[in-house]
Task: structure prediction
Amino acid sequence: MAERAKRNRQEFESLPPEQRQDYIGVQPGAYVRLEIPNIPCEFVQHFDPSYPIIVGSLLPGEEKLGYVRVRMKRHRWYKKILKSHDPLIVSMGWRRFQTLCVYSVEDHNGRRRMLKYTPEHIHCMASFYGPVTTPNTGVLAIQSVNNNINT
Result:
């Protein structure tokens, strides 16, 4: 990997900085200026320069919506069971959204059997409609962001 980086550096060092940036992008640690049109006035009113602004982007394939299947297990500290078709807030990569999950398990012959509730102490599959993401992306699902819920 270091050899490849060295070859890239040698290849592009003769180019002017603007053209080099077009080919390899902005170097890590460099300062950039973002011009964002139509920014809400609340952003400027509540802006605190002591907190960094995290800017992320999505790949072209991640802008699409579709059915997503994830392998999930209820956390052992959460005492309640989860019911199919109940709303969940899902955090998946950069995305946060609310969706309705359908839980299922796979039979020995390969069919998926729908579950009304999440099983105890084992994994199950959760299917929901949401943004398509790459395989092996971590997923966190919670029922509510309210702190006053008795668990």
Q: What stands out?
A: Helices lie at 2-12, 17-24, 41-45. The longest strand covers residues 65-72. Residues 2-45 form one domain. The mean pLDDT is 86.
